[in-house]
Design a protein that fits this description.
The protein is mainly alpha-helical. It has a domain of about 45 residues. Helix content is about 40%, strand content about 0%. Helix 1 packs across helix 2 and helix 2 crosses helix 3. The longest helix has 13 residues.
Length: about 90
């Protein structure tokens, strides 16, 4: 399922062939700053991703039309790596 909207990326899927194009289109720093201010209620044990990143992925998925947890997960699985990187993903 594709969720790219014209404001989020290129109008042609071929534009993504090189990789990082499209991830630099929008300045989302203020959104990430706001999400970083949310207190993380989770226990430190078992945390795999920082809350800011998890919330950012949820925002992107909901803007793409997700209406529940299952749909958020489905959209999150389809987010391209350049956008995940911009949202704060860290690969170890």
């Amino acid at each position: 399922m594709s969720f790219w909207h014209s404001a989020c990326g290129p109008s042609s899927p071929d534009t993504f062939a090189a990789g990082d194009e499209g991830a630099g289109d929008a300045d989302i720093s203020s959104l990430l700053d706001m999400l970083a201010s949310v207190t993380d209620p989770r226990s430190p044990q078992g945390i795999q991703h920082i809350l800011e990143f998890v919330l950012a992925v949820c925002v992107v998925a909901m803007l793409a039309g997700a209406k529940n947890y299952r749909e958020i997960a489905g959209h999150a699985a389809d987010i391209p790596q350049p956008l995940l990187r911009k949202l704060g993903a860290e690969w170890r």
